[in-house]
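Subject: for your reference before the review

Hello V.,

The reviewers asked for a structural picture of the protein, and I figured it would be easier to keep everything in one thread rather than splitting it across files. Below is the amino acid sequence we used in the manuscript, unchanged from the supplementary table.
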Amino acid sequence: MRQDDLKLLGKIVTTHGIRGQLKVASFSGEFDTILSLETVVLKGKDGRMETFPVARATVHHDRVLLSLTPFTNINEVLHLISAVSYAHRDQFPPLEEGEYYWCDLIGLQVVTAAGTVIGRLDSILPTESHDVYVVRGADREYLIPAVEDVVVQVDLEAGTMTVSPPEGLLDL
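And here is what came back from the structure prediction:
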C-alpha cells in the first residue's frame, strides 16, 4: 500500500450501538470528506494498517458514524477503538477554486509578498469566523488569519503560501 498519498482524517473514539458502527472524531472538524469515502485505512495501536470498504457513513452530532464491511456487530469492532483513520487523497471530493484541504496546506512554506520567509505552516486552528494558520518560524510561532486580505496566494505546486500581513501582525 502506498502511504505517500494517505491523508490523516481522524480517530475512532468509540462504538455506536450493537451493529458494529464506529464513531470517528474528524481532526479537521469537517465531515464531507469522510462521508464521501469508498474505503478507509485504519492504523491500529500495533501500527498495522488495514483498508476497509465503507458500507455507510452518517453524521451524528459532532462525529461521523462509520459502518465498515465486513463488520456487523459490536464485538467485531472493539479492537478498532483508538485506531487512526486515513484515506487516499484521490478519494477526496473536488473543491471549488480557492478552497484547499488542510492536509494540502500543512507543510507549505509561508512567505511575505516581499519574499521574506516566515516559516512552515504547522497546523490550523478552526474558529467561528475563519481559520487561523499556525506558522513555525526559526525562533517563534506566528498566528496568521486565513482571510483573503492576508493570504494573497497559495501555490501547492511550488509548496508556498504568500501572505500580506497587516503591520504589526508578525510582531505579536
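For the response letter, the relevant points are probably these. The longest helix spans residues 32-36. The first strand starts at residue 6 and ends at 16.

Happy to draft the paragraph if you're swamped.

O.
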